[in-house]
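Appendix B. One record, verbatim.
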Amino acid sequence: MDVEGYELRALRGVNLTRFPFQYLTFEFFPLMVKASGDDPVDILTLVRDAGYKCDYEKKINGITNKEELLEAFISKIKSHVNIFLSFGMIGNVIYAYLLVISKR
């Protein structure tokens, strides 16, 4: 998905909980998201609430509040990150995984 800072609006246009994508990838530019009038935290919250697990939770120690974790993760991004999401099933268990594949 390449929507130049409008990721939140694009993702709100689909029901990720009911109809999750097998794969979803996007460039995450917090400054562009803010310029479009949205909050970058809201994008990651939307993805997390749809069932995708985010690996940033393991990387930031000492913070327990989920929104503060997101803000701390975003504050470490200098320009942007590429995010790859995978959603699938193992047996009867749905799993999801978010992987930051590069930082710039």
